[in-house]
Amino acid sequence: MTDTIYINTKATKQLTYDAIVIGSGISGGWAAKELTEKGLKVLMVERGPRHDHLKDYKTASLNPWEMEYRGRTTTKQREDFPVIHRGWAASEAVMDAWADEKDSPYTEIKPFTWWRTYRMGGRSILWGRQSYRWSEMDFEANAKDGVAVDWPIRYRDISPWYDHVEKFIGVSGSKEGLAQLPDGQFQPPMDLNIVEKEVSKSIRSHYKGKRHLFIGRVANLTENLPNRGKCQYRARCWEGCHYGGYFSTQSSTLPAAMATGNLHIITGAIAIEILYDKDSKKATGVEILDTEDNKTYTFNSKIVFVCASALNSTWLLMNSATDIWPEGLGSSSGELGHNVMDHHYNLGASGKVEGFENFYTYGRRPNGFYIPRFVNINGDKRDYLRGFGYQGGASREGWHRDVAELNIGASLKEALSEPGSWTIGAGGFGELLPYHENRILLDKRYYDDDGNVVTDPTKGKQKTDKWGLPILATDAELRENELKMRKDIVEEMKQMLEIAGVKDVNTWDSGHNIGHGIHEMGTARMGRDPKTSVLNGMNQIWHAPNVFVTDGACMTSSACQNPSLTYMALTARAADFAVKELNKRNI
Fold first, then answer.
1. Are residues 578 and 587 in contact, defined by beta-carbon separation less than 8 angstroms?
2. Model pLDDT for residues 476-493, shown as the tens digit of each residue
3. Are 209 and 24 in contact (CB under 8 A)?
4. Within its chain, how far is the Cα of 557 from the centroid?
């Protein structure tokens, strides 16, 4: 555990704080910012190592040919990181970002692709930055459809906090006036390119204004903010941005929290238990495991914000207060660990566009277009519930395209000096319903030396991680509603491209293991009744009101929009409430 150099001269090391924030990613950074700015002394706990703004963006200024492996991963990395290599996330530049899969294993009862990063800032460095509000219809959906439980909040409850967050992080985008995708506090939008503009016109015309294609709303700046420069169109955001051109904990919420003098951070510290006092019915602090010396330490606080990312936050609750609730803190409803959600992914359509050979693009726009939901709204009715949107882009093929001239030397060089054909494509992001049967749990089974599950404890042992801690098992899958939606996602995109005149349209659906959308949600849902939910409408655990869970674990449904903006808004709202309740001595 590193008693971090982040500590500034105004704060002092201590064991008792007003608040403890577990996790330093998108939600944790926001909790730290809001709580410190309201005057609380805060301890932030991060299980991974430091990752400093500017100085630790080691590859951001390198060309691919300047990297040791030209941007690719090694054979050993492919062996050591099999989960990350299931998709496109494995590259030399960011391999240090991903969680060590040998040190931190999990059990896939059913396939689940869990992309984790354990370092300062969490996935706030790696996120896709697409930032969309959820709408009234999203918060009403469960109640209207009779699915799972009703959200305890509505759009009006969170709208002011969307405003608050958008102004601070900087979201560029266009106002479209759509009920299913509310407008926000936007910086000027990035531009669609010529092909995207033409396809947008075709779609809008053919569907008589009921379908829309516009530039993505993205947390990349198009105007400067204090201490942050606008986006340089490098499209290398995952490697960190020296300009602060996109929102991350390091560029935005952490500097704000540090400026208060109220923040203390420890890294290399795994929160292993929330300490709970059954007499006061409140948490008293957090027990921490030092990843370097494997010793435990206790830190006390008046409130705890759990922001470790959806599955790890629930893992922590499952390990807490087990002397009172065997399945963990917040488990009395029987819903802790259940209702795992994600978004549809790995499917879409693409094709070639003719007639724009004299048009070029400049820069590397780190953003694409967005097509918001159009099914099961405005009179459209399908044989499944909820909806989907698309994210995509048009571009000219580059030097790595197939070259017709199978040649070498001057003719090859000349062929590659010209841009290739225009192509356009988009992938679908669709809503998964919250099923009680889709769950995570602590893997308490016993395994023999060959990895087989055995029922006799004397013939095997339980799986643990590097530090001897219990590990999670995932048990979730797509069901009938999702499988029907996937067919529509592909066919609708194909149809829209063909209507727009796109040639040689291909479709793909490479299947989807939950988790691969990197939008894992649920497992500690909000609700109106402690008998059917883990958290109330202010993100408090029903039976531990000074414990707040504000990351993806809290979600009651998944909508089809990217969820990170909602996590930030919920966190800021909960932090404001927590401080007011603390000042009133209600928690």
1. yes
2. 999 999 999 999 999 999
3. no
4. 15
